[in-house]
């Protein structure tokens, strides 16, 4: 029941886009690049070669690119943007109502209403990612994570439930959300980055410190990713998100493979996109956007710089921990060979203190990483998504401009036809002009809509950012306080012993 | 922010129990760092009749300290004493290199950053400078406190002669000679180490010192590495503070106040962390380095004693041989007596020296470890207070 409703809703968003597809069948894919955004926002280090799912990479190729029948289950496929899978949109666009929370969510005008609703709604949901478990052997192995949701919101069927998901499932979720929401101005949180080296070590079965650290790093990143996604009141209600959290079985997200045809398509679109960005120069009528863009650009620069320094701190603290441990051993040896008994005891005590320090440094390095460094890394990636959204606005503007130009051309053509005797062609021209006028109006509405959405999104984003930073940094300072308290305790004992030498 | 600690550069920090009597007091009252050399002003106060004046100063360079040390080592009369280890050469190379790199990278950082880093490096330079002064001073104080060495003529010349001693550094030939001497010594060292000593005291000391020296060497190296990591972490916190400051001045949300407060906090805690590293360096690293050198000097003493024992035994054998052949007996007897006397003299003074060494060592370690603990506690408490007050402010303002 839930699924049918979602499918219909999915069709809703596409409603307008699909009508465009029919008319613009010959247009190149790059101008409707929605799929590529997921590639953009997956972070700077896209490992283009391998992935978690090294299957026969081109097996799905035919499926994804072919033009399928309208009845095709598009919701569950991982097909790329709607530009490739045209469907006949239902003429009545409103879905059968399932529950009040599924109402009218994706028709443009009702977005505003929903957002006002959200302010009063209590947001009570907590997601945890835990119990990483290795499934399978060798290069086909993968890590399965348990995703547990605890909530009192009526949006969900239960109050507490768990599912098993693998990394590519998360990537698939992000890919779907990105293709649905980025081009209309929503800041979709980027998924954690892929990592060949890290994953290969885990697959190969190295049960060592570094592969354990990698898994923990990833688990934490996946948890943060899901929490950020559900904190967004629109994304929370997306059927793909709900399915991800609730459904026990999830079809494999194959288009997240870098070397699949979808992956290649992403890369092509990304390149075309880059060229487009260079050539589009927009007449910014609204200073707010320019101001915000500059603000985010300088924020990006500063955060990256800070991130590098914090990463360096993590590295040096880990080094300090290792060196302290070595010194502790050395001091113990020295204490052993010291033939003055009281001094020997003091040196052993020194060794003990330094061992405690080693552990404290290690713990602090972890706090440095998880509370500070990862926060910064997340925001560097989030800012890339923000930039993407601003870029989409520019593209939407460009589309509107193009439509206006096309309308003008058609009017000129019609004017010329006026002086000929081809009445049937004239009628056709007049019809085309009418359609075109409609399109220009729609494009203008789209542009205004995305501008409105971005304004709201930026407001929401900045609020989140303030909250996020404050919470994390306070937690970080608390970790520093704890460390100092332990240091004091350790040296207090030490002083007591050495004084008796 | 360089707090002048009373214990900083205090020669007695590494070497306690020095009888500071008024008859001879030596210190380094001033030092000047020129491009590639350091000039130490050695100041002496003495009531001894050997000197022309009661108080006087001369300027000495590192090479002249080495000359003095080497003259002790080469003096047969002092074979039975632990020769105070020579001070290490003043080494500003690393610091100078860093200052140069900073100068080159001036264009790539803001004015505030540049000034800050420059101050940091200058403070580091100053710290190294103070340390080298302390090391040279300790050497002189040890000599002045030693009942026999303080009377050495070369020492008096060193203290009083107010012109250049014209001691050239060792030329290549002499350095090569030294190298071979050391090779022979270590080969011999293996030899004599194998010879079991009839005297329990010395046998114990030999085993002890061999192991102790190696372990101090290891501890010294590991301590240095640990402290360097500490400094690196403090440097990172410095950079983080700067970045946070920039973020704070640029942010448009209420985070700007927040960032500025945290930046201020990290500026302060960073200074504390740097002090921790500096204090660990002084109380731990320097202590270990010093006793590395002293334990080597003690080993050298044992080696000289062993050599003289070997000479003594050889002289005995030669005497037996001479007696059996009834040739050059008188010569052999005199030779044997000299060796015997030498050996006994060395053994007697060596025993006292080694006992003193232990006393000094225990006292120095005790003092430094206690002070280290006090300083670590002080700094941790300081850090804690800074962190808690910042947290308090932030929690009430959100």
Automatic annotation (TrEMBL), chain A:
Residues 24-51 are annotated as: Disordered. GO terms for molecular function: phosphatidylinositol binding. Residues 123-252 form the PX domain. Residues 26-45 have a biased composition (Polar residues). It is a peripheral membrane protein. PROSITE patterns: PX. The keyword Methyltransferase does not apply. The keyword Translocase does not apply. It holds the Pfam family PX. Residues 419-453 form a coiled coil. GO terms for biological process: early endosome to Golgi transport; protein transport. InterPro entries: AH/BAR_dom_sf (IPR027267), PX_dom (IPR001683), PX_dom_sf (IPR036871), Vps5_C (IPR015404). Keywords: Acetylation, Cell projection, Coiled coil, Endosome, Membrane, Phosphoprotein, Protein transport, Transport. It is found in: Cell projection, Lamellipodium; Early endosome membrane. GO terms for cellular component: cytosol; early endosome membrane; lamellipodium. Belongs to the sorting nexin family. Involved in several stages of intracellular trafficking. Interacts with membranes containing phosphatidylinositol 3-phosphate (PtdIns(3P)) or phosphatidylinositol 3,5-bisphosphate (PtdIns(3,5)P2). Acts in part as component of the retromer membrane-deforming SNX-BAR subcomplex. The SNX-BAR retromer mediates retrograde transport of cargo proteins from endosomes to the trans-Golgi network (TGN) and is involved in endosome-to-plasma membrane transport for cargo protein recycling. This is Sorting nexin-2. It comes from Gouania willdenowi.
From TrEMBL, chain B:
The keyword RNA-binding does not apply. Gene3D superfamilies: Arfaptin homology (AH) domain/BAR domain, Phox-like domain. GO terms for cellular component: cytosol; endosome. It holds the Pfam family PX. Keywords: Protein transport, Transport. The keyword Protein transport applies. One of its GO terms (biological process) is retrograde transport, endosome to Golgi. Residues 18-165 form the PX domain. GO terms for molecular function: phosphatidylinositol binding. Belongs to the sorting nexin family. Involved in several stages of intracellular trafficking. This is Sorting nexin. It comes from Gouania willdenowi (Blunt-snouted clingfish).
């Amino acid at each position: 029941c839930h699924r049918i409703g979602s499918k219909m809703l999915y069709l809703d968003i596409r409603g307008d886009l699909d009508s465009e597809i029919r008319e613009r069948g010959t247009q190149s894919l790059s101008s409707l690049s929605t799929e590529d955004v997921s590639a953009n926002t997956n972070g700077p280090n896209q490992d283009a070669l391998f992935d978690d799912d090294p299957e026969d990479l081109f097996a799905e190729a035919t499926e994804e690119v072919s033009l399928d029948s309208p009845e095709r289950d598009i919701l569950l496929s991982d097909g790329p943007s709607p530009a490739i899978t045209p469907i006949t949109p239902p003429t009545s666009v409103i879905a059968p109502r399932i529950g009040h929370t599924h109402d009218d969510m994706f028709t443009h005008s009702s977005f505003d209403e929903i957002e006002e609703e959200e302010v009063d709604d209590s947001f009570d949901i907590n997601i945890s990612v835990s119990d990483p478990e290795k499934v399978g052997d060798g290069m086909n192995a993968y890590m399965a994570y348990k995703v547990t949701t605890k909530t009192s919101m009526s949006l969900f069927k239960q109050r507490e439930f768990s599912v098993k998901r693998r990394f590519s499932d998360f990537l698939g979720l992000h890919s779907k959300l990105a293709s649905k929401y980025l081009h209309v101005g929503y800041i979709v949180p980027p998924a954690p980055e892929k990592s060949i080296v890290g994953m290969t070590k885990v697959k190969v079965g190295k049960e060592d410190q570094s592969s354990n650290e990698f898994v923990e790093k990833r688990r934490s990143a996946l948890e943060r990713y899901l929490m950020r996604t559900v904190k967004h009141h629109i994304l929370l209600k997306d059927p793909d998100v709900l399915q991800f959290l609730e459904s026990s079985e999830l079809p494999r997200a194959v288009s997240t493979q870098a070397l699949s045809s979808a992956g290649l398509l992403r890369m092509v679109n990304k390149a075309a996109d880059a060229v487009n960005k260079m050539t589009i120069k927009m007449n910014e009528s609204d200073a707010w956007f320019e101001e915000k863009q500059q603000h985010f650009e300088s924020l990006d620069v500063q955060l990256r710089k800070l991130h590098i320094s914090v990463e360096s701190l993590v590295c040096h603290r880990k080094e300090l921990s290792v060196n302290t441990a070595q010194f502790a051993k050395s001091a113990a040896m020295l204490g052993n060979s010291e033939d003055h008994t009281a001094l020997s005891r003091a040196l052993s005590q020194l060794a003990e203190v330094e061992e405690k320090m080693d552990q404290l440094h290690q713990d602090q390095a972890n706090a440095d990483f998880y509370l500070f460094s990862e926060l910064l890394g997340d925001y560097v990636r989030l800012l890339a998504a923000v930039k993407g959204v601003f870029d989409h606005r520019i593209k939407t503007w460009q589309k509107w401009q193009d439509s206006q130009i096309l309308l003008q051309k058609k009017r000129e053509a019609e004017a010329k036809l006026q002086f000929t005797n081809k009445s049937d062609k004239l009628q056709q021209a007049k019809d085309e002009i009418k359609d075109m006028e409609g399109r220009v109006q729609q494009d203008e509405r789209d542009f205004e809509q995305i501008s409105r959405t971005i304004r709201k999104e930026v407001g929401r984003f900045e609020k989140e950012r303030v909250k996020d930073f404050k919470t994390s940094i306070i937690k970080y300072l608390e970790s520093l306080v704890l460390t100092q308290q332990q240091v004091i305790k350790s040296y207090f004992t030490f002083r007591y012993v050495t004084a008796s030498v | 922010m360089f707090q002048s600690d009373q214990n900083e550069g205090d020669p007695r920090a590494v070497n306690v129990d020095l009888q500071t009597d008024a008859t001879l007091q030596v210190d380094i009252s001033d030092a000047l760092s020129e491009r590639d050399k350091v000039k130490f002003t050695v100041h002496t106060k003495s009531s001894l009749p050997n000197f022309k004046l009661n108080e006087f100063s001369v300027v000495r360079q590192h090479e002249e300290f080495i000359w003095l040390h080497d003259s002790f080592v080469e003096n047969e009369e002092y074979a039975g004493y632990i020769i105070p280890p020579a001070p290490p050469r003043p080494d500003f190379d690393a610091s100078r290199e860093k200052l140069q790199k900073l100068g080159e990278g001036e264009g790539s950082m803001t004015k505030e950053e540049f000034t800050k880093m420059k101050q940091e490096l200058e403070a580091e330079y100053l710290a190294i400078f103070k340390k080298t002064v302390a090391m040279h001073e300790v050497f002189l104080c040890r000599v002045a406190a030693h009942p026999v060495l303080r009377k050495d003529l070369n020492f008096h010349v060193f203290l009083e002669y107010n012109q250049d001693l014209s001691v050239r550094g060792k030329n290549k030939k002499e350095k090569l000679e030294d190298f071979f001497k050391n090779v022979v010594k270590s080969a011999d060292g293996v030899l004599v180490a194998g010879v079991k000593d009839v005297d329990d005291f010395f046998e114990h000391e030999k085993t002890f010192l061999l192991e102790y020296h190696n372990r101090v060497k290891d501890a010294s190296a590991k301590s240095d590495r640990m402290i360097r990591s500490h400094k690196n972490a403090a440097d990172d916190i410095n950079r983080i503070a700067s970045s946070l400051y920039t973020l704070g001045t640029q942010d448009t949300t209420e985070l700007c106040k927040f960032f500025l407060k945290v930046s201020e906090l990290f500026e302060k805690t960073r200074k504390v962390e740097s002090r921790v590293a500096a204090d660990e360096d002084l109380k731990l690293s320097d202590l270990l380095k010093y006793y590395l050198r002293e334990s080597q000097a003690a080993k050298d003493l044992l080696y000289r004693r062993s050599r003289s024992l070997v000479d003594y035994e050889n002289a005995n054998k030669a005497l037996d041989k001479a007696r059996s052949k009834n040739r050059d007996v008188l010569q052999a007897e005199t030779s044997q007596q000299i060796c015997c006397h030498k050996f006994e003299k060395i053994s007697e003074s060596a025993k006292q020296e080694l006992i003193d060494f232990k006393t000094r060592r225990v006292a120095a370690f005790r003092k430094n470890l206690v002070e280290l603990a006090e300083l670590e506690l002080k700094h941790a408490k300081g850090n804690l207070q800074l962190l808690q007050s910042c947290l308090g402010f932030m929690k009430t303002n959100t």
